[in-house]
Design a protein that fits this description.
- The chain is of the alpha/beta class and about 400 residues long.
- Helix content is about 35%, strand content about 25%.
- It is built from nine helices and 16 strands.
- It is elongated and about 85 Å long.
């Protein structure tokens, strides 16, 4: 039996257990940097496979599968954390934790990588080299678990020649996978503004310094950073999704707080824009008689897929699922802390199709109705195992 067919068979054989693990994780989600039970479950499965592991960054784990002789090292990554979202799905594996949900597919990523480990452990005599398994915490929250794992040496001793990351994509039908060479995802920084004025009676506006009006002007003025100061050929965006003014119909509050996000695909522009955002917000507030405190929480850098590596992995995917089931991805201003890895070693971050319009499985990630077609868990583990072996240099 050809190796690719052997891997497909193993992926299908493991699929019922993979789905069971995914459903358990989905029903018991844990927020960023709190993934203690999730990490314990990963440990149990690695122990059962006879794979050594060590903890990094508190709830992160790293393990290795060594082939039949020495060779290169390739890294595979999954993330563990869930989101602070109240699930609205009504099914047997819906979240049992109020206000917490696996709405970004990390339950899929973790269960899939565990199944990939199961496949590779069974066929370790078929490849040379080492596959490093990275289960990281905190993808959804700054500073990003990937950055902490890197600081604790997950990409060292030896450094992998490359790293692969898989992520669900509900906009791609199940059975398909997507790739993009080069720049793919944006940097992401959190902007927190505190606009301070002078509160008072709404019927005496001459006696107050209205922070609500100042905040409104700041929001409008800051859009100039994107619409008039950014190169129009360079994707970038600035949005404020939270504005809090604790006043009333006849009460002007003392302050207004705002929270937003800035995204960019260029690190030089990112630095310039963040400085301009800070200065402009402060200047508008001062010009209107108030003041603005600015706090910027630095997030993830841009994510760039190594062109040569991604081209190789795309071809490996074509061998596994066929040319018609491999699609090209568009640049997105979404962000991912996998980007940190891509700034250290050649990286390929690809998408696993999980959508099924006929079954109504169409909700996007980070929504309370997100779900997947679990047929993706027949495909995902085997595909990653196949790509890892191809990257280690085994013949097709």
């Amino acid at each position: 039996m050809a190796l690719v067919d052997q891997i497909k068979r193993l992926s299908d054989e493991l699929a019922p257990e993979t789905i069971q693990v995914r459903r358990h994780l989905h029903a018991h989600p844990e927020l960023s940097y709190q993934e203690h039970a999730t990490a314990a479950l990963v440990e149990q499965h690695l122990t059962r496979l006879g794979l050594p592991f060590r903890r990094l960054a508190t709830t992160g784990l790293v393990s290795e599968i060594v082939g039949h002789k020495p060779g290169k090292t390739v890294a595979l990554r999954a993330d563990l954390d869930a989101l602070p979202i109240q699930e609205k799905n009504d099914g047997p594996y819906r979240s049992t934790v109020p206000g917490v949900m696996h709405a970004c597919g990390h339950d899929v990523h973790t269960s899939s990588l565990l199944a990939t480990a199961g496949i590779l452990a069974r066929i370790r005599n078929e490849f040379a080299g080492t596959v490093r398994l990275i289960f990281q915490p905190g993808e959804e929250k700054n500073p990003g678990g990937a950055s902490l794992m890197i600081k604790e040496g997950v990409l060292g001793n030896p450094q992998p020649v490359s790293i692969l990351g898989q992520h669900v994509m509900p906009l791609i039908p199940v059975g398909q996978v997507g790739f993009r060479e080069g720049m793919y995802m944006a940097s992401s920084d959190e902007i927190y503004l505190r606009v301070i004025g002078k509160g008072g009676h709404a019927g005496a506006p001459h006696l107050v310094v209205d922070p609500v009006v100042i905040a409104a002007n700041i929001i409008v003025a800051l859009q100039q950073v994107v619409s008039r100061q950014a190169d129009p050929r360079q994707p970038t965006t600035l949005n404020f999704g939270k504005v809090v003014a604790q006043g009333a119909t006849n009460i002007v509050p003392e302050e207004v707080t705002m929270a937003g996000t800035f995204r960019a695909l260029n690190e030089v522009w990112r630095e310039v824009a963040l400085e301009r955002i800070s200065k402009l917000a402060q200047g508008v507030a001062e010009g209107m008689g108030g003041r603005c405190e600015v706090r910027i929480s630095r997030g993830y850098p841009y994510l760039e897929n190594d062109v040569t590596l991604t081209r190789r992995m795309r071809q490996a995917a074509v061998q596994y699922v066929g040319e018609s089931n491999v699609v090209d991805l568009e640049v997105t201003l979404g962000s991912e802390d996998f980007a940190y890895y891509s700034h250290v070693v050649p990286a390929c971050f690809y998408r696993l199709g999980t959508g099924n319009a006929a079954r109504g499985i169409t909700s996007y990630v980070h929504t309370p109705t997100f779900d997947i077609d679990e047929a993706a868990l027949h495909l995902g583990p085997g595909l990653m195992a196949w790509m890892a072996i191809q990257e280690l240099g085994q013949p097709a």
